[in-house]
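Replying to the earlier thread about multi-chain prediction with a worked example.

Input:
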Amino acid sequence: MPNNARFAEIAALAGDPGRASMLTGLMDGRALTASELARLAGVTAQTASSHLMRMTEAGLLLVEKQGRHRYHRLASPAVAQMIESIMRLAAPAVDSKPVRTGPRDAALRAGRTCYDHLAGHLGVSIADSLIDAGHLELGIDAGEVTANGIHLFESAGINVEALTAKGSRILCRPCLDWSERRPHLAGAIGAALCTHCFDKGWIRRVEGSRAVTVTPNGRRQLRETFGVNLS
Amino acid sequence: MPNNARFAEIAALAGDPGRASMLTGLMDGRALTASELARLAGVTAQTASSHLMRMTEAGLLLVEKQGRHRYHRLASPAVAQMIESIMRLAAPAVDSKPVRTGPRDAALRAGRTCYDHLAGHLGVSIADSLIDAGHLELGIDAGEVTANGIHLFESAGINVEALTAKGSRILCRPCLDWSERRPHLAGAIGAALCTHCFDKGWIRRVEGSRAVTVTPNGRRQLRETFGVNLS
DNA sequence: CCAATGCTTCGAGGGCGATCGAAGTGTTGC
DNA sequence: GCAACACTTCGATCGCCCTCGAAGCATTGG
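Result:
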């Protein structure tokens, strides 16, 4: 089975300390430059360049040229999931907390990150509001930001032009929400919106979980800026 | 971060072709002897011994002495999940190529065990049916058994309370199916359901393979008990 | 006991790849 | 244009670890 060789190849790529640092450093979904990743891994630029090329060719990373910088990010949620599964094994026995199906699940339903965008009641509410206001069109299999929507995001401080210029990544796509059973906003614009909310302090991550909570100010800002009403 | 070293160590262990063969060979949850694993990996007994010791010390495998044999198996579902996540990245060729389907591949696609739960067309069909009937919610990143679902499993003779009481293991989680490209049911409840099907004689393991076949009675029982319609 | 089997330990060989210095290409800013 | 910056390519070094032969335990069966 030739498949096995590829299995080992991929695992081996994650099996070098330097590359491991790079991969875990990219887990938040951001795109980092080669220099940043080199510093993060504690190696010289040449070494980092070699690592990044190999991981890109193997399909673990995607790279975007932007001027004299090269931005690298994880190629897909599947890659992030693999890294997460390794991290879980690498973590010391934190398993002490039994992860009860109580407040935590409720928190996950209310709002969480799905790879690099927002999901749960929060994510679906945002998508619904944007759709209702004509800023967004979103179906099961595809989606699009309207001209109105682009204007809205731009005026909120999210540079949509820059996102589309990045080329390879799809600007807007739906992602089916497991708790709400309806699509929420993913793609480059979904990731940008998520980052925006974190940066502005509108949402905060719950320690040791994918769950996020909306701050009082965030709730107000989301309503005023994006017309989102969180019930 | 000392954690990073352990991340790389674990990934590197999976990154050797020989060890990769061993790990994937243990994915059905069975325990194999060192000799069997050596043959599977295509290496001598000495080499295999070294590999097995390292993987055991790293916590990937558990070993059980039994006379002059030493049985090795995956240490936990978390290990199996890591392997599965790597396998999924290793098989992107499913998109481009129509995938030559030998009889054995066809059997694997139809139904197989994924460590300790059911996968393939069988696994996805079960998950879909449970979701449609409101017994289960399952997305890319998380899932949950509904109150209705708990009642269904209990009445079928699966003690859900006992599973949740176990504490550490997650009751319900999705596992992305590599042949169907959609989530199927994993976690404690997925394992319990799989065991239930074997115990009742609804499914049988194909000799020397992870593939399973559904017996005529099993097909009927799955429909009557869990509302599963296998096309 | 002795031979056979399963597995491990020891030691040596050998290849792969991680690393960095040096040099080259492309881009930005003045 | 020139200098600074970001990144890549090339080449050489060197250490790690994969591998197997040989020998050493451990267990089983006769």
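Residues 93-102 of chain B have pLDDT under 50 and may be disordered.

Feel free to reuse this layout for your own posts.
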